Amino acid sequence: MKNFHDEYNRTKDLFENKMLAMVGEAVYDAPEILTKAMRYSLEAGGKRVRPVLMLQVAQLFGTTLENVFPLAVALEFIHTYSLIHDDLPCMDNDELRRGKPTNHIVFGEDMALLAGDGLLNLAMETALKGAENLKEDDLKVYLQAMRILFTAAGVNGMIGGQGVDLLSENKDIDEETLHYIHTHKTGALINAAVLCGGILAKIDEKTYSILQHYSDVIGLAFQIRDDILDVQGDPEVVGKAIGSDLANKKTTYVTLYGLQESERKLKNLEEEGIRLMNQLDCDTSFLKTMIRYICQRDQ
Fold it and tell me: Which of 110, 269, 281, 286 has the least C-beta neighbours within 10 A?
């Protein structure tokens, strides 16, 4: 796709403008420092891969983006809260995120914790507000997408993966446990982004199955690339300290398989994602280039 980055940035900018407008409407009676802490992490930049995926999938299958924005914004609120909490001393104890001091370094651990809590609750409020005034058929698919999103964010998804990740520190874990961590901690929200976009567009069962497989592939690829970047990435480009997984004594794809085998697995996932998109009878060039971008990114 010749103009992938232009289209990516167009979608990203469209999303960010909508997200910041929604925050301005939703946060009206909170302490100023808490509001600043929440906005600090929301406005810190980032790739916005998850909402871009949701919006692009929904657009591909012909739904109105206005119907998708509330869930896309809720998704990014969830993702941002998870990063704030991940960086806390009791979790990964990171001091840099996207090239800036992490939330707790700027606002203190107490406000960082509450900022994360606030964003999680705001995600539910935003998602529910998006259900207002929907007709019966649209409401049914919207609630189905909501369920997928919040399940992915919960103990059977991202939180469960984070829990096993913490419990696995300083331990030698097997491939099955590592796969669980990656597909839940990182993959679950990426999976939800793709599937929610498709559900809101009312796709058929065959298309859903293909997108589900694609989202599994892209979620795992994202984490393997993260593992590789933690070893050989440029801190100035990545925007955070390199080697934190090793410092925290975590098993990753690189520590389990080695760098060369991890890169081979990543290449196989890239090829699998493209093969899956070739099975759909529509222009999937953006989603094919997206898997290449995720597998080859340098941040």
Answer: 281
User: What is the tens place of the pLDDT at every residue in 49-92?
Assistant: 999 999 999 999 999 899 999 999 999 999 999 999 999 999 98
Q: Which domains occur in the chain, in start order?
A: 4-296 (1.10.600.10)
Residue 122 pLDDT level (bands cut at 50, 70, 90): very high
Q: Each residue of 135-157: pLDDT tens digit?
A: 999 999 999 999 999 999 999 99
Decide if pLDDT at 197 tops 80: yes
Core vs surface per residue 127-152: b (16+ CB within 10 A) or e: beebeeeeeeebeebbeebbebbbeb
Query: 266 burial class (0-12, 13-18, 19+ CB within 10 angstroms)?
Result: buried
Instruction: Tell me, rounded to whole angstroms, the distance of Cα 183 from its chain centroid.
Output: 12
Whole-number Å distance between alpha carbons of 269 and 275: 10
* Opening angle at CA 297, ends 61 and 79, nearest 5: 65
Who has greater pLDDT, 237 or 161?
Answer: 161
